[in-house]
Amino acid sequence: MESTDLTWRLLAKRQWPLALSLTGIAVLETGSISSGLGWWQVPGVVVICVIAVLAPRRPFDAALSLAFAIVCVALYMRFLGVILEPHFFFSGANISMTGAAMATIAVLVRESSRWRAVSGTVLVVAAMVGAEVLGWPIVAPEYREWQPDVRSYLFGATIMLVLAIGTGLYFRARDNERRSQLAASVAAAQNAERMALARELHDVVAHYVTAIVVHAQAGQLNREVDVLPAIASSGTEALTAMRRLVGTMRDGSSAGPAASSSLMDDVRSLAVESGLPVRLSFDLQDAVPQELARSVLRLVQESLTNTQKHASAVSSVDVSLSSSDGVLRLGVEDDGVASGVPVGGSGGYGLVGMRERVELLGGTFSAGRREPTGWKVRAELPIS
């Protein structure tokens, strides 16, 4: 048994135009009833209209119920010898019944599977044909000598059937398009979130893990150097960063540590943590927003991590930050010699993540070798 899981509130919001239309038609039909016996058509018409309005909740069940109700109404009206007024085809189906049948077919085609839509439509059409056949001999006196034009009758019935099916197919296509757009939006949002987490994981956690490996290797080369405090500190920072990332995935909080009120102090802290011979240069003439400062810290952090992983014999790393005319400029340059095997291997995502981060902020990014030795990173970011 299928169900579209529509709540009554959503159903009322969606179906009120149909309910209002069928009610108006039924009221007009009731007002035109001339004989007392003609009132016998009212209960059946009400049931049929109610089924049509409720059809979106269970389209196929509604089609079965509607077909059964139409046949029952036609049978008891024929048994009583009551004229259905006003006649749509001067026979057994009035306007409200026909409208309810068209609406139910449209909903069935829109929301049901193909075989259910076909079988349900066939049943409703068969019930309408049965109502016409059962009702035809009982006509108003003024039409008893009238002979119907079968071709016109079939043409009109076909037009209404095509209109009902076409309406259902149109809304079905719209629903499919809307679902496709929603799925694409969800996929894009999920991908963006995965990329953001990947960047944070690479920029933050990998930085501290790289520091651990570098200090451990230094300790192996020189047993007299006490590297345990540095390794412990880097390990603690790595665990803290991992906890922040887990918090991000669980409750959507911001990943990674937020920048403090002073971007320069944060860059100095990164330089000290890296253990590299970093020379700093600052010329910030504009206030830097927190989100932008956080991204700048990630760029500096990743640049220093790359120097640790990929360079040897580094005597200086120049980190410069300046701003003017609403543009923040970052430069990181080292004079190291490219090492054969990067520390901990290389996933090749560092520069990609940095470029993505800068481009998402509307800036420009470049990185490459410098002469005679070393590596340089440049980024320009709009402050506003």
From TrEMBL:
SUPFAM superfamilies recorded: ATPase domain of HSP90 chaperone/DNA topoisomerase II/histidine kinase
The UniProt record lists the keyword Zinc-finger: no
Top-level lineage group: Bacteria
KW Cell membrane (keyword) present: no
GO molecular function: ATP binding; phosphorelay sensor kinase activity; protein dimerization activity
Reaction(s) catalysed (UniProt annotation): ATP + protein L-histidine = ADP + protein N-phospho-L-histidine
Protein name from the UniProt record: histidine kinase
Organism: Lentzea alba
